[in-house]
Amino acid sequence: MPHAVTLIPGDGTGPEIAEATCRVLEATGVQFSWDMQQAGVETLAKQGTVLPDEVIESIKRTKVGLKGPITTPVGKGQRSANVTLRKRLDLYANLRPAKTYQGLRSRYENIDLVIVRENTEDLYAGIEFQRGTPEYEELLELIGRTTGHQIDPNSAMSIKYISVAATRRIVKFAFEYARANKRRKVTAVHKANIMRLSDGLFLSTAHEVAKEYPDIQYEDRIVDNMCMQLVQKPELYDVLVLPNLYGDIISDLSAGLIGGLGVAPGANIGNNYAVFEPVHGSAPKYAGQNKVNPMAMMFSGVMMLRHLEEREAANRLEKALMQILAEGKSVTYDLKPRPDDPSAVGTSQVADAVIERLRCL
Ligand code: NAD
């Protein structure tokens, strides 16, 4: 039986990397029945939304999605399709491994981090207030009355909230992941010294959950210190669990440690559904140029194969990707010593090389 998977190519460079990724996934011999769904700037123009309901309905049917990046116009009031998708399907865990592979140009060796980011709350919950609206004025009045803080009405506000339930399940997810994947340590990352109530609740809940996993080391770090530590001594860290915003930032930082966004995969996982996508965005300036690196989405495909229990195919595809990286020939501009290196190949040629390699494995 082929695996039914919702395929969302996305926009910008998404369709090119999605096409390349589907080709290599099919070349593993695993059979897929793709349910192709459009989301992004084109559906915004045609249907007035970046995330049509059909996309959600399709994932509810197939239970698994493979997704290219989707552009979020900055400051235009349009909610991110990515954030909405994760919220509507309750894909509460964003799993972003960052691993150095031979051949990647990085300042570091032997990095093997796993970022577990809470995906549904925090400043990304999308609860925002615009200046001059009656509801914002009401909120400012309440804040003034209950806290004594007189906030400048010529301002706007985004709400950060963190719950015990969401923190418990993300920290448990991190520990369960650590246990299942034989990892040694979980580090909870926070800013509880300043946001004593919201991050404080995240931290105290994480401490509680950690007690249920005596076989796994546990510690916590303040997020600014964490950034410096990751740059100075990343080898000390293993699985990191973070609230939404810090998780987003630290996963890009970790992608930088291993050689760039072109090779950083991700998964959004909930109790019922899972959507696999690269960490990077739609890189719109390169759209349609057959230029960007499809490997981050291909590594996300490896994660999807494991989720579908196609372990042998996952291992073969990962091995093929590792070999291509180690050889450094059939790779895109971002993995070359200089971005204008004339020997860089295009998106689709990377897929050709991976497929060729899969035939020998
Ligand atoms: P981006 O990740 O799209 O690009 C930043 C830079 O990283 C690019 O200019 C390029 O130099 C490099 N890069 C990214 N992907 C690459 C690849 N596959 N190969 C080679 N180089 C690559 O980040 P951005 O410019 O901040 O965001 C562009 C749009 O993407 C925004 O609208 C943003 O909201 C959206 N975005 C979407 C997702 C998602 O769909 N999950 C994630 C992040 C950003």
Automatic annotation (TrEMBL):
Pfam families: Iso_dh (PF00180)
Protein keywords: Oxidoreductase
Gene3D superfamilies for the chain: Isopropylmalate Dehydrogenase
Superkingdom of origin: Bacteria
A GO MF term: isocitrate dehydrogenase (NAD+) activity
SMART domains xrefs: Iso_dh
Chain ranges of the Isopropylmalate dehydrogenase-like domain: 4-354
Annotated protein name in UniProt: Isocitrate dehydrogenase
